[in-house]
Design goal:
Length: 222
């Protein structure tokens, strides 16, 4: 049974405490937290970051399937072999998907362990996107060199007899068309890799700040 003095104190606090102010039971009555100060936009922002990263996974992995299905060419295959051998279109994209999923879950759970997990996965995705960016830039340079070889082959065929030229020109045209298609695929993959790099870098800073704020609040309540 509370004493009359405690009841009077509680009623006085209830009467003078503004609506929307939360008084921590572990803190002194003078230390209050406004409900508006809580991170209401956290789930939405984390969800947007997660969706962007999952979208990058879908696009990059789909383009990776296209690269695998391209017919073998003695001139063009070496240009894309490096990026396929590293597995970036699939392993890197899978890393982006995991990071995006963890980000969405962390936004809903909003506690320190999930924030730290999202920070770690975002940092890993940043590294993966950076490596993919370098690989894609190298593949584009190699592909450009291979396309020039296709052009030089066409010039060489024009000096041959008509019969030989007629049957070989189709190989040169296929080489040029495949080169254009591969360049388009790599450019789109490069664009989404840059998008993923920016999203992962922003997510790393975002979750670092969030984990720091959560840690400070937890220590202040102890």
């Amino acid at each position: 049974m509370p004493s009359p003095l405690k009841l009077m104190t509680k009623r006085a606090l209830d009467a003078f405490t503004p609506k929307g102010v939360v008084i921590s039971k572990r803190e002194k009555p003078g230390h209050v937290y406004q409900k508006d100060d809580l991170p209401k936009g956290l789930p939405k922002e984390a969800t947007v970051l997660g969706i962007i990263q999952i979208l990058c996974f879908l696009v990059i992995s789909s383009l990776g399937v296209i690269l695998v299905s391209v017919p073998n060419s003695s001139q063009l295959s070496p240009a894309i072999s490096s990026i396929l051998m590293t597995g970036y279109p699939f392993l890197g994209a899978l890393c982006f998907a995991i990071t995006g999923t963890v980000s969405i879950i962390s936004g809903k759970k909003s506690n320190k362990p999930f924030a730290i997990n999202s920070l770690i996965f975002s940092a890993v995705s940043s590294v993966a996107a950076g490596v993919g960016l370098i690989l894609l830039a190298g593949s584009l340079v190699a592909l450009s060199t291979a396309s020039q070889q296709c052009d030089s082959g066409r010039d060489y065929l024009s000096s041959l007899p008509y019969s030989t030229y007629y049957y070989s020109i189709y190989d040169v045209k296929d080489c040029l068309l495949t080169s254009v298609d591969l360049t388009g695929v790599l450019l789109v993959m490069l664009s989404f890799t840059v998008l993923e790099l920016l999203a992962a870098a922003y997510a790393s800073v975002f979750w670092w700040k969030r984990s720091t704020v959560t840690a400070l609040r937890s220590s202040s309540h102890e």
